[in-house]
Design goal:
Number of helices: 6
Radius of gyration: 19 Å
Oligomer: single chain
Distance between the termini: 59 Å
Length: 180
């Protein structure tokens, strides 16, 4: 049995710096499986699509691949890209393996979430930060789903540590000009 897997990663665009490594890891894992289990009755091939750090492009590429018969996807680094393809997963009964950390506010039967959620990655860092640098925290993030949900959770964790948020700012992906 041959299973074709759709790899949906940004090979160009603002998040490509991170996603190219994720794509390479996914491709390596599939190629290694093929080599190590060449005598099994299961084989994998994959098709790669550049989603260009764009939720609309993610949707288009996932839809095109689902229409061609692909049922399993890996990728969609940002929460916005993941959320954009949920209708495709539902309509074509497909499955997404989501390899990135995520906000933890969603459970979907067509998605296998591999990454950490904020309380698994931020709680110990926030505790250390408050102990070492003080209880006043300024929150900054990119202006999309993951940073906003994460900062909501940071606020709750910070409250439990008797800390306060002294400011909050969201900037577009790729923003580079910051000043005090």
């Amino acid at each position: 049995m041959n299973i074709c897997i759709g790899l949906l990663f940004s090979l160009t665009g603002i998040t490509s710096l991170t996603e190219i490594g994720q794509y390479q890891a996914a491709a390596y894992a599939l190629e290694k499986f093929q080599k190590d289990y060449s005598k099994s009755n299961i084989s994998f091939t994959y098709e790669v699509r550049d989603i260009r750090s764009d939720p609309i492009e993610s949707y288009r590429q996932a839809l095109d691949m689902a229409r061609s018969g692909i049922k399993v996807f890996v990728g969609c680094y940002t929460s916005a890209c993941r959320k954009a393809i949920l209708p495709v997963l539902e309509q074509y009964d497909c499955f997404l393996i989501y390899p990135a950390l995520y906000e933890g506010q969603e459970i979907h039967p067509n998605v296998f979430y591999v990454g950490e959620i904020p309380n698994q990655q931020i709680a110990s860092l926030l505790k250390f930060t408050v102990e070492q640098f003080g209880k006043k925290v300024y929150l900054i993030g990119n202006d999309y789903v993951y940073p906003r949900y994460t900062n909501q959770q940071v606020r709750e964790m910070l409250y439990e540590l008797d800390g306060t948020v002294i400011g909050e700012k969201y900037v577009p992906l790729g923003h580079k000009e910051f000043s005090m």
